[in-house]
Every structure is written in structure tokens, then in C-alpha cells.
């Protein structure tokens, strides 16, 4: 599932190409992906202009010129591609938005969605999400306060969108590895020093992954050499049986609260 770095990378790319360009065509191939009947959806956004692209957690919010929002959640397997008809991806698309001769293709949205909302509706949809971890107002002290009184496994906390927004399975494992903490360590048992190390690792991993485009499996557009570059940089995620890059150990995979977890038992500890 695309996480904070992937969606932030998309936000930057979308902002470079779509701002103030009118929507000239709307194709809906799967009505369950949207929240209106296909024709009503098409009529509602034809001619609209995107004036701002915002990322909130794992969501993208397209701010339209009339105040409404298009809320996108890619969920598991969702992808975006931007280009002309001649570059149409060899995949089934759920929704297509045309901007002149360029088309934004929404793919893999069998579980994802693109909903047209009012400001009030979009605020309600985002209202239960935790704070943004890379926001300039976040710091080590605020992060520690977020953890105060929390209980349970570190992995479960990191992926809890009501506590902190944007982290999923991949980056939770990468952050725990960077912090040299077991994903199963109980949050209530973490020392002050461990929490400091966890916060520093979180900022480092998310910033590095965002800078090199996250781990998406295909480029956003022709000539895009950034998107997906982090896929080869993962140190533990999906590396079961491979040697630990810090030396000595072997990456293992377990299940924790129904989620797959990758870690190195040699260099990740309780503190």
C-alpha cells in the first residue's frame, strides 16, 4: 500500500503538471471507485480546475477552484500515471481525467477510491487522522508526548493512522530497523533514549524515502526516473532470508497482530 513517501512524491509531481489546467474529459470504468453515479460525477467536475494538491497521511486531496475536493486513497495496489493516449498503460483503469491531450490514469483502485466532497465532508473524512510526522510543528518532545500512555507493540503503534499519519507496513519495519528496535517491543517499555532514537530514525527514513520517490512499481510519467527508487533501498522489508546489511544476522519474517513483519533478530533489540 502506498505510504507517506509515495503519496508525497505523487503530490509533488501532480502539483507540477495539473495546477489551473481545466479538466476536459472524465471516464469512469468502475463506478464503485467514485461516490456518485458516473454521469453525475462527470458533469460535476468537467471544466473544473485543480488549484492546489495536498497530501494528508496516505491520501491526496485535489482542491478544486470552486472549493470542493477530490479525495484519493490508493489503498492496496493503487497507481497513478500521467501521459497522452499514446502512452496509455497496459492496465485496467478505474477512472481517467483528461487535461487537454494529457490524461491522469487511476489504476488498481479495486479497494481504493476517488470521491468528490465538500470542504466539510473532506474535513470530516480527515478528522480522525493523527498528526503529520514531517510537519514543521512536529518535534522530539511532541513525538514523545504522542507515545505517552500508549500500549502495545511498536509496529502496531507506527501503523495506527489515528495516532500518527502516513506510515504503513514497509516504513514501520524500516524505521524500527533504523532505530535498532524490535517491531514487537512494547511501547510502554521504551526508555527516553529509545524514543529519541525512534523519532530520529522515523524522520530519517521518511525523508530519505520521499526524496528518492518511495517504492512504487512504475513511473508517474515518461521520463520519470525518481518514482520507485527506494524499492532497492529497503533494508529489511520483503528481504526475508537475506543477510542483514549491518552484518552478522539474517532477516526474518513473522506475523504480528495479523501483519507481516521483517526484522533482524541480531541487531534489533528491546531498547
UniProtKB/TrEMBL annotation:
Q: Which residues form the Formamidopyrimidine-DNA glycosylase catalytic domain?
A: 2-112
SMART domains listed in its UniProt record: Fapy_DNA_glyco, H2TH
Record domain FPG-type: where: 235-269
Q: Which domain of life is it from?
A: Bacteria
- Keyword annotations of the record: DNA damage, DNA repair, DNA-binding, Endonuclease, Glycosidase, Hydrolase, Lyase, Metal-binding, Multifunctional enzyme, Nuclease, Zinc, Zinc-finger
**Its Enzyme Commission number?**
3.2.2.23, 4.2.99.18
Which SUPFAM superfamilies does this chain map to?
Answer: Glucocorticoid receptor-like (DNA-binding domain) (SSF57716), N-terminal domain of MutM-like DNA repair proteins (SSF81624), S13-like H2TH domain (SSF46946)
Database matches in InterPro entries = FPG_cat, FPG_N, H2TH_FPG, Ribosomal_uS13-like_H2TH, Znf_DNA_glyclase/AP_lyase, Znf_FPG/IleRS
Is-annotated flag, keyword DNA repair?
yes
An example GO BP is:
base-excision repair
One GO MF term: class I DNA-(apurinic or apyrimidinic site) endonuclease activity
- The reply on keyword Iron is no
Cofactor needs: Zn(2+)
Residue ranges annotated as coiled coil are none
Catalytic activity annotated for this protein? 2'-deoxyribonucleotide-(2'-deoxyribose 5'-phosphate)-2'-deoxyribonucleotide-DNA = a 3'-end 2'-deoxyribonucleotide-(2,3-dehydro-2,3-deoxyribose 5'-phosphate)-DNA + a 5'-end 5'-phospho-2'-deoxyribonucleoside-DNA + H(+); Hydrolysis of DNA containing ring-opened 7-methylguanine residues, releasing 2,6-diamino-4-hydroxy-5-(N-methyl)formamidopyrimidine
Recorded family membership? Belongs to the FPG family.
PANTHER family, per the entry: FORMAMIDOPYRIMIDINE-DNA GLYCOSYLASE (PTHR22993:SF9)
Query: What is this protein's record name?
Result: Formamidopyrimidine-DNA glycosylase
Amino acid at each position: 500500500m502506498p505510504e507517506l513517501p509515495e503519496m508525497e512524491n505523487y503530490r509533488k509531481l501532480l502539483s507540477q503538471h495539473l495546477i489551473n489546467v481545466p479538466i476536459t474529459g472524465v471516464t469512469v470504468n468502475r463506478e464503485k471507485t467514485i461516490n456518485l453515479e458516473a454521469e453525475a460525477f462527470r458533469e460535476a467536475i468537467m471544466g473544473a480546475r485543480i488549484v492546489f494538491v495536498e497530501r494528508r497521511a496516505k491520501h491526496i486531496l485535489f482542491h478544486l477552484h470552486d472549493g470542493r475536493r477530490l479525495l484519493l486513497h490508493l489503498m492496496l495496489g493503487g497507481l497513478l500515471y500521467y501521459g497522452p493516449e499514446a502512452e496509455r498503460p497496459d492496465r485496467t483503469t478505474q477512472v481517467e481525467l483528461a487535461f487537454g491531450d494529457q490524461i491522469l490514469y487511476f489504476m488498481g483502485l479495486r479497494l481504493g477510491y476517488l470521491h468528490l466532497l465538500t470542504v466539510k465532508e473532506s474535513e470530516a473524512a480527515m478528522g480522525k487522522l493523527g498528526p503529520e510526522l514531517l510537519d514543521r510543528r512536529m518535534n522530539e518532545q511532541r513525538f514523545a508526548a504522542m507515545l505517552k500512555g500508549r500500549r502495545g507493540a511498536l509496529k502496531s503503534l507506527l501503523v495506527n493512522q489515528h495516532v500518527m499519519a502516513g506510515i504503513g507496513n514497509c516504513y514501520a519495519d524500516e524505521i524500527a530497523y533504523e532505530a535498532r528496535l524490535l517491531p514487537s517491543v512494547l511501547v510502554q517499555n521504551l526508555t527516553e533514549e529509545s524514543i529519541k532514537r525512534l523519532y530520529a530514525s522515523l524522520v530519517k527514513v521518511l525523508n530519505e524515502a520521499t526524496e528518492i520517490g518511495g517504492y512504487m512499481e512504475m513511473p508517474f510519467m515518461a521520463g520519470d526516473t525518481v518514482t520507485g527508487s527506494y524499492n532497492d533501498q529497503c533494508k529489511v522489508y520483503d528481504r526475508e532470508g537475506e543477510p542483514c546489511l549491518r552484518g552478522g544476522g539474517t532477516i526474518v519474517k513473522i506475523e504480528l497482530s495479523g501483519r507481516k513483519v521483517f526484522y533482524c533478530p541480531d541487531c534489533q533489540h528491546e531498547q
